[in-house]
Design goal:
Blueprint lengths: L11 E5 L6 H14 L4 E5 L5 H10 L13 H25 L3 E5 L2 H12 L2 H7 L8 E6 L2 H11 L9 H20 L4 E5 L4 H13 L3
Parallel strand pairs: 1-3, 1-4, 2-3, 4-5
Helix pairs in contact: 1-8, 2-3, 3-4, 4-5, 4-7
Length: 214
């Protein structure tokens, strides 16, 4: 299901996967490949760089905590992500699509369904929070094992976010499978791509999946 895409509008493409699956690398590579085909491309990410997204990034890094210095309540964090998503849509994504640009977004609603369904224990509630978010034209899920994902993440940076621990990432991998089934059942288009290959091979597979859009 794709709402709000009219004649001449750009394509809304979302990259998803475990932390370390390569979504950020592939977002840039995919944008370069699409630009080489003559497309205008806007690359963005969630949490966004907007005012709400900045707060979410501080929570993820552990630099912003809840009242009394405790960790922010998981439900409050889910609300923060949902609020950032709506602001991100209005401020950046929808205007770019309307002028005919493709938008490549590093993470979107599927991340909330996976991560926040674990922390809140309620995927249906998280889905309801995000019901007003425009669905992507295509979600591209980079499938890698939790071991591979964490090894890549640890090699890339010494900084750790609150969800980047092995036991939690194994839970996230299972939650993603459930979230993928949920969005596919709702009519959204999803392509699962092997993310364990070379960067070049993964980009080629992503382009092939996008070529199937009509």
């Amino acid at each position: 299901m794709s709402r709000g895409r009219g004649k001449g509008a750009g394509r809304f493409l979302v990259l998803e996967g475990l932390d370390g699956s390569g979504t950020t690398t592939q977002a840039e590579r995919l944008a370069q490949a699409l630009r080489a085909r003559g497309r205008e491309v806007r690359v963005t990410a969630e949490p966004s760089r907007g005012p709400v997204g900045q707060q979410a990034r501080l929570v993820l890094s552990g630099r912003l905590r809840g009242g009394g210095g405790e960790e922010l309540d998981p439900s409050a964090l889910a609300l923060l992500f949902a609020a950032d998503r709506l602001d991100h849509l209005q401020a950046e994504i929808l205007p770019a699509l309307a002028r005919g640009a493709d938008v490549v977004c590093d993470r979107y609603t599927l991340s909330s369904l996976a991560y926040q369904s674990i922390t809140t224990g309620d995927m249906a509630w998280v889905a309801a929070l995000n019901a007003r978010a425009r669905p992507p034209d295509l979600t591209l899920f980079l499938e890698v094992s939790p071991r591979t994902a964490l090894a890549r993440r640890y090699a890339a940076s010494a900084e750790r976010e609150i969800f980047e621990v092995p036991a939690f990432q194994r839970k996230v991998a299972r939650a993603y499978r459930l979230a993928l089934a949920r969005v596919e059942a709702s009519g959204e288009r999803v392509a699962v791509v092997d993310g364990e290959g070379t960067p070049e091979a993964v980009t080629a597979a992503l382009l092939e999946s996008i070529d199937g859009l009509r």
